[in-house]
Amino acid sequence: MSQYTSDNASNADISVEPHAAWGAAPSERYETLARDWRGLFARIRASAVERDLAHRLPHDEIKWLRDAGFTRLRLPREQGGVGATLPELFGLLIELGAADTNVVNAVRAHLGFVEDVLTAHEAQWQAHWLSKLASGDLIGAGLSEAGSAKVGTFATHLTRTPQGIRLNGRKFYTTGSLFADWVAVAAQDGDETVYLQVPRTARGVEVIDDWDGFGQALTASGTATFVDVAVESEWIRPSSTRFPYAVPFYQLVHLASLAGIGRALADDVARRVRQRDRVYSHGNADRVADDPQILQVVGRLHSAAYAARAVTLQAAKAIQRSYEAHQDAATSEVPRLEALTQAHTDAHVEVDQSVSVITRLVLDASTDLFDALGASATLRTEGLDRYWRNARTISSHNPRVYRERQVGAFAVNGSVPPSFYRVGKG
């Protein structure tokens, strides 16, 4: 049915829910794909405020997603996936982010590992992990450290002993690992950095929920320790080469979360304004829903959410082109190296350009929303503060000031953004 029954239709004739105009879908099949997930997303959103107040980790919610196959979306159909494109994946992440960004962040490392497997050149390693992923195995993060290691190195290390390879070290920001079957670890093997997957329940592995941030509090982004963990050789990736669009991919997951927050808060405020029956004596109408100043605030929030989604999906197209160029080069007898380099550079720059815009839009919206509501909206039990807390935390992981500088350096001097990021002592 058309949105309008006639060119002169009144508001009462509009046949869709209020503000359904979120923009074009990222693919022709997207709506069919998304319909399979929206009921589950709604179920996750229904308890988001309660979980936030009670600090209840989303073990159940992540299990629902895993059991339903969400963690296999990008896998080929023969591995239990649907072969989702990256724009389709990020469209779904925006919708899941509107339900709960804690859950999005908790599967971020897993989604990145899937890309590593899909783009791997090592056939045996790829086949091994495709089988694991197809069976539903979930991967958590164990890359970052909060210790004294210098930038570009890790204090976590492998040692060769008469009893075999052993892993020792300590990681922080281990997002999703408490929910996972495997922890993806970066470690030093002598002078080399290696990547490996370690069973979360292996002897000597401990994952602790000691993340104390004021936002994204339910991601279990705390500490993981590894004490003389026996490492099987097949757990170690044969090379340290990661997928070429890793940096923009991981950042775009954060941007999809921010776009999801924008959509959730815009919908939340619109609903509250519709239902609100208390007015100010110095307002402009007998109903809040008819007050033009309040409607202006609601409109500004929806505009921010619309733009954040559109920019995220546009950047996702650039990452898709990087993925396709990489796959084409892997199967081509004569790879087009110039086109390959251009596709990877574009993915980095387009995501960097998106960071500043989306961050500002959603952070502003998460404070402006209170201008449309009364003081009762600040009650903790209402849960509206979580939008700002989560958005501020997400946007602090990779400071936008550096992204803005990288875009400027590329625009002025043609300087290509770095392919990989590290944090540590200077």
Automatic annotation (TrEMBL):
Domain Acyl-CoA dehydrogenase/oxidase N-terminal: 43-137
Organism domain of life: Bacteria
InterPro entries from the UniProt entry: Acyl-CoA_DH_C, Acyl-CoA_Oxase/DH_mid-dom_sf, AcylCo_DH-like_C, AcylCoA_DH/ox_N, AcylCoA_DH/ox_N_sf, AcylCoA_DH/oxidase_NM_dom_sf
Organism: Paraburkholderia hiiakae
Protein name in the entry: FMNH2-dependent monooxygenase SfnC
EC number: 1.14.14.-
Keywords per UniProt: Monooxygenase, Oxidoreductase
Gene3D superfamilies in alphabetical order: Acyl-CoA dehydrogenase/oxidase, N-terminal domain (1.10.540.10), Butyryl-CoA Dehydrogenase, subunit A, domain 2 (2.40.110.10), Butyryl-CoA Dehydrogenase, subunit A, domain 3 (1.20.140.10)
Recorded GO MF terms: monooxygenase activity
Origin organism lineage: Bacteria, Pseudomonadati, Pseudomonadota, Betaproteobacteria, Burkholderiales
Domain named Acyl-CoA dehydrogenase C-terminal: residues: 254-397
The keyword Oxidoreductase is assigned to this record: yes
Gene that this polypeptide is encoded by: sfnC_3
